[in-house]
Specification:
Layout: H1 3-19, H2 32-37, H3 43-47, E1 51-55, E2 67-74, H4 77-82, E3 88-95, E4 101-105, E5 111-128, E6 134-135, E7 140-144, E8 147-151, E9 155-159, E10 164-167, E11 172-189, E12 198-199, H5 223-226
Antiparallel strand pairs: 1-2, 2-3, 3-11, 4-11, 4-12, 5-6, 5-9, 5-10, 5-11, 7-8, 7-10
Length: 228
Amino acid sequence: MKRSRINEIMAAADEMIRANGFTLPPFAYWTPEEFKARATDARHVIDARCGWDITDYGDGRFDEMGLFLFTLRNGLLGDLQRGGGMCYAEKLLISRQDQLSPMHTHALKAEDIINRGGATLVVELYGSDDAGNYAEDRGGTVWLDGLRHDYAPGEKLHLAPGESVTLRPGDWHAFWGEGGDVLIGEVSTVNDDETDNIFRDPIGRFAEIEEDEAPTHLLVSDYKTRLP
């Protein structure tokens, strides 16, 4: 993805987030220079990979297959492994109309996916086989707004604003906006995007960046190369 395109997506996402009554934290608006100057104080933000995240899954077709994310808060994997401390995470996502977030599951993370505003969020579900692999012929169980729901393989949930689904490890899912763009909330156990995204098809989690202009704000994938 071109950096200029990423900058445009950030600006449009911020506008949609504000239009739905949410405001991002102050560090979201730091310039790269400000982030570098405040890196010591922002150590947890950096280590927990909080901040801007825009991906085309390495496929180069963001409008057809991609996702905007902003990690608001996140614990560390070490906390989750020892069973104490900050064992939770929270994100805002934007799924555009007909923009696919491809079929995947997580080995560790359980998550509430919440339609925070906009159009309808469609979530397609499949279960796992006994080894945890994607199973085209298996369903499973999720919770819709806290109520049990047994889903058939390939079932599509249609979540209106305010509605939510709780997914657990082994619930394979893909999602997209229907009828317009959707602002999504995600509340989960600790989020580890580098190792805990298991895709059905061989794709990448992060975009490859073409630096055609300077970044407005850093992506979480920039932290390793642009911050001390």
